[in-house]
Task: structure prediction
Amino acid sequence: MNSERREMVDGAAAIARGALDVGCNFFAGYPITPASGILTHMLRELPKIGGTGIQGEDEISSIGHCIGAATAGATAFTASSGPGLSLYSENIGLAIMMEVPLVITISQRLGPSTGAATAAAQGDIQFMRWCNSGGYPVIVLSPTNIPESYHLTKRAFKLAKRFRNPVFIATDKETVMTTESVAVSEMTETPDWPEVPDEPVGELLDPYRVNGKIHHYTGSSHTEEGHITKDPSIIADLNERLRQKIESRVDELSLIKSDLEDGAETLILSYGISARSMEAAVNQLRAKGEKVSALTVYSLWPIPEKKILEYLKDVKRIIIPEMNHGQYRQEIERLTNGTIELVGVNRVDTFLITPEEIVEAYHG
Amino acid sequence: MAEMGLDTYIAEENLPYEFCPGCSHGKVLGAVSDSLKQQGLDPTEVVIVTDIGCVGLSDKYFVTHAFHGLHGRAITYASGIKMQNPDLKVVVLIGDGGCGIGGHHLLNAARSNTDVTVLVFNNFNFGMTGGQHSATTPLDSITPTTSFGSTDAPMDIAGTAKVNGGGFVARATAFDKNLPEMINKAMNHDGFALIDIWELCTAYYVVRNDFGRKEMMNYMDSMNMESGLLQETDRSSFQTNYKNVQEQASKQKPMGGLILETKFSSNLDKPIRIVLAGAAGQKVVSAGNLLASAATLSGLWTSRRADFPITIQTGFSVAEVVISPEPVLYSGVIKPDVAALVAPEGRDKIARLTKAMDKTGLIYFSEGLGNVDSKAKQLPLLFPESAQKEVRKNISALTAGYLTQELRLFPFEALQEAVRLIQKPKIAEINLGVLAHFKS
Result:
């Protein structure tokens, strides 16, 4: 008998606790299934510790409050689903341009528009990356289970502070709304991940202060003083810096769990909720004596290209289960450039991908 | 405070203003500076939040903090800044265009009475993009987008703020001598303050519509939109209200988790997927929680999903519980091992699942719900004779008890312990009574 202590918890509570434990003191959001649990927790908990948690009149005002509060020194957080991300998108560009730290959870649900509000999906993986005009980089982390939801949320806040940029937690209805038993130790012990350095990658901008330095924040192309400029070289430097501050640090941002087997010619690569079905499939295959490797990608963006390629050295085939039409597969296709056979396992019918489907894909 | 004040709050090194000749924007910026001077404010305690349009060029003319965001959203940023740091004086400079595209934010800021001051540079058209019609363009006006005259009723910005509860609402013109004093009053009002300042766009609106200062004043009269203070209330501001929320909340304990210690044991050697299918009000999800918690108390691993319509107290209610000797990786249920049907709504909802079950599966059904289309073995839920009077009100707890007794996944005591640990005392008392029927 295992006498471990276990906790009954869902992803919404894990994400809210992660945010609170890492010092989040400001949340604004708008109700939407399947992210409302996070809103409810944050609005109930933040005033208890002197923080601010409010429901905006829509997603636009919610993220607007977050960005305003962040310039005034808040550790800000919001949460929504794909339809909310549509409304967030103009302000995500603003947060990138103003370089304010901001954490955004997207609890994915199925389909375009209202879609299937109560079905899990992974269809916003490209949307999160490319939702800002100009196509500037963001950081996207994706947990596969409840303890990882807690720990990656904490990590997201540290990254947002270090990079002064929007950082996404890409999760889904299943992870956020399913209650599971988890080992208490998995919630309390930090996984063996590299530490996020404390120092910011650029100049630290203090919040507005009385009797302090004056700060100008602007969404326009600007000088270092925060004044609008049309000078092409200043504009080029600013835009290049916004790109490079993240893309030149891909190695630092790369977070992957590898489960490699010597001699395996097939590797399964997945992320988020589908990575759990992958793990179950790998267990089934190995129990039957098959040789198979697995990669779980936690840092979806920027794509941990170098690390992924290292793991692909002797691989002849990659199976990629994901609950969309192949959004991450197209990135792996770009990386491998036709040298490795790629097999997608995709599902957009409200059901999770089953381990058996992945086993079936393995046997071709 | 006066000793901190400056002679001007305009960044003179950035002058002259780049506004068009005759534009009133510079006049209003001067009035803002004069007001800050009269108030003797430290420039580091003031944040000027500018919207988009010609007024959005204003941030660089101030020696205070500044925030220049997106079109129509200025009030949302200002409100966020003030929520985070109530010691700052936050002033929004926005045009009639911003009040149109951001009208939703304007009326909701008035409703919440958030303590920011909104100065509307209302010149009846989109000056920056070529004079297109805006939300306040007067009827019959000629603009590039209303070649034959505008047909929409103009928005009354001050009126909108007023009827939505804005604490301080005034209408003025850029030519008013007392504008700095009016701005003082607005900034010192504890709550949402808005001044709808009418002015002239000499580049576009004025020339296309023969609309000078005199015509503007006549228009004001003809619309019965009088100038001056329109509303001043002592309704408490969002910031005051939220301080009360924080004070009350600070007395409550932070959120905790439901920790369960393993107290029982189980011989289960493979995962089992159970679906409870009933109707709203039958406490089906609660029964699913009991099974999952009892399994957890017995050293097993669980996941529990709930499915119900968006509307509550009507339609189906389904709980899917996976119980496993190993941590649950795949939490989905497409082919249950066990289904329990306690209402027709649930039976119909999971028809696809029961149909997928093979002959190793077990379907338990309450009275009248058997004979579904499935290869699974179908058995009636045979509650103890003494429990018949509980069936109507507590069928889900009875079903949890029955499944625990029949499936032997974990000891019956684990289910009772789960009731004691996870349910509110009143409910626990009822359910322990229900489960007592199985004791004999």
Remarks:
- Chain A has two domains: 6-188, 256-363.
- Chain A is about 40% helix and 20% strand.
- The longest strand of chain A covers residues 102-110.
- Residues 256-363 of chain A form a domain with the Rossmann fold fold (CATH 3.40.50.920).
